[in-house]
Write a structure and sequence with these properties.
By secondary structure, this protein is of the alpha+beta class. It is built from 6 helices and 5 strands. Helix 4 links the parallel strand 2 and strand 3.
Length: about 190
């Protein structure tokens, strides 16, 4: 009697039952949302609905004692000089000491928009020097970047020493449409 390899294999396997297979991964979705998932979903939805466009990514880095200045094109040199010399009455102040970058971002956004809403134009923002922050001057760097991103900001400059020096900025906002109209009417009466 001669056996071939297949016959030998079948003889050895006689009485052996195959193992029942089961899925290697549980593919059923967990219906209950975990607290972490709920927080992430809420944060993502808030980010999508957030009107605050100011970025927390890579601000232009400045040093604690750097003097900052910015002027949009079209701003008259006389307006910029008057602001730079602290000759405008300060109508509103914002102090960012002890704020995280995220808190400062929201505070600056809200402050500028509130000032615009109330037609306040001459502001001061005290951002601090950031000598003890890591990296140094992080809030100052962010404020320098954020103000350039906001259309309502015409110009800003490091404040004079008695207003905070390199730890603060004078800021001038655009005129409201109502203020522009009043200005045009006032100047029209002068020429008539």
């Amino acid at each position: 009697m001669s056996y071939n390899d297949q016959d030998l294999f079948l003889q050895e396997m006689e009485g052996v039952a195959p193992l029942k297979s089961r899925p290697k991964a549980d593919l059923k979705k967990n219906q209950a949302e975990t607290p972490g998932q709920a927080l992430r979903r809420k944060a993502a939805q808030a980010e999508l609905n957030d009107p605050n466009f100011l970025s927390l990514d890579n601000p232009k880095r400045v040093q604690p004692y750097d003097h900052l200045e910015y002027k949009r094109s079209g701003v008259q040199e006389g307006v910029f000089k008057k602001m730079r010399l602290g000759k405008y009455d300060i109508e509103a102040r914002l102090d960012l000491h002890n704020h995280t970058a995220a808190e400062a971002r929201q505070a600056v956004f809200d402050f500028i928009n509130d000032c615009k809403k109330h037609e306040l134009r001459s502001l001061i923002i005290n951002h601090g020097r950031g000598l003890n922050s890591n990296p140094p001057a992080i809030i100052k760097s962010y404020v320098n970047t954020w103000l350039r991103e906001m259309d309502q900001v015409l110009c800003f400059h490091t404040a004079l020493k008695f207003h905070g020096g390199s730890a603060a900025l004078y800021v001038v906002l655009r005129k409201s449409e109502r203020e522009k109209l009043e200005n045009r009417e006032r100047h029209a009466k002068r020429t008539a």
